[in-house]
User: What shape does this take?
Amino acid sequence: MRNQGPATGFAAAQLIKRGLGNEPFMLIQTDLLRLPEEKFFEMIDVCDDLVRKENKYITGGVKPKYAIMGIDYMIAGKKIVDDGVKVFEVDKFLWRDSKEKVEEYVNSGLAMTHWNHTCITPNRLMEMFKKYKNEWYEPLMAIVGGGDVVTNYGLMPKGPIEDVTQNAFNNGEALVVELPFECVDFGTWESVALYLKETGQYQEENTINIEAKDNFIRAPKGKTVATIGVEGLVIIDTGDALLVMKKEDSGKVGQVVDKLKEENKTELL
Assistant: This one.
């Protein structure tokens, strides 16, 4: 409920309370496939070794084939490991706010998508919180010290982990592992659409398209959807709710939840 930043800090705080502050831990996304799976375990071993040697923020990245605006990017710098798994320093963090800029870096081969395979020691992460997001650090340390979890967790402002990590990326405090496996992302409707179409699994049923193209439509069985003169849309009909948006805006779906809360329409959540 406080977004990924406080949640990641809370995980670290719980480990510190258990006396594991200097042990590497990893947090990963659940909304993607890793193929083949055994390569993921090789990456875990590399990250464990790097954290113990470098004491830096380690994350995973992939050089993308095309720009997807629902995810973040890093610009890779100097290669420091090339022994089966490639590891780079991070030159800077690239927000998803300009599609033209993202496409420029993707086409140049310098961009790496940020896949949130976070590996770091809890103590080091807490140092980063103290340096870059003290309003998270103080409640978390209160929890470590035995303070009430609900009260202190509620004091932290909502925010993504990038509020901290983008500073680490930009200040030479991070490394990126080029993931040695294929990642199939299901974090946005745009990425779901790309995957299903590329693998031949996308089938439009009960649709009528007139001068319309490159749309992704999902609707209840037996319901007909007609599109006229539109392009690059995601249309999701769950029966009791309808979502219509541009594919490039699919990373903003969470704002709908925020809006419902703001208007006290929590019965729709």
User: Anything to note?
Assistant: The chain has two domains: 4-185, 203-268.
